[in-house]
Design goal:
mainly alpha; 6 helices
């Protein structure tokens, strides 16, 4: 992921990045793995927002907008996790760059894990 690449470029450990950012090391690991927020955290935050909304402005239910937009994002992430949609994945991004450049990217130009394995010369 991008965060990991930038962290390694700076020569920082996950602990150093956690100390600098004020986040937990486990949070840094999740971000680097690309793990989205869980459904449980979605429901917990949404319940809190609903309570705040109903307490302070019960006539305007703005928390429903948050629920709908965040729910849509979670649904898309779930579909991507199971490979049901492939919009904006790494391969898509690479193909868009290659289309704009009008050529294939060389192995050295590909980002980290997408580098193609070169056959070894014997």
């Amino acid at each position: 992921m991008i965060v990991q690449e930038l962290r390694l470029k700076e020569g920082w450990s996950q602990q150093q990045l956690a100390d600098i950012s004020g986040l937990n090391v486990r949070t840094i690991q999740r971000i680097e793995k690309g793990q989205p927020a869980s459904l449980a955290s979605y429901l917990l935050v949404l319940a809190g927002l609903a309570a705040i909304n109903l307490w302070f402005s019960p006539k305007h239910l703005w928390f429903l907008y948050v629920a709908a937009s965040w729910g849509l994002v979670l649904a898309i992430q779930g579909l991507r996790a199971f490979g049901l949609i492939t919009w904006f994945d790494t391969d898509w991004g690479i193909s868009q760059v290659e289309k704009r450049l009008g050529r294939k990217l060389s192995d050295e130009e590909l980002p980290g894990p997408e580098r193609r394995e070169r056959p070894t010369m014997r």
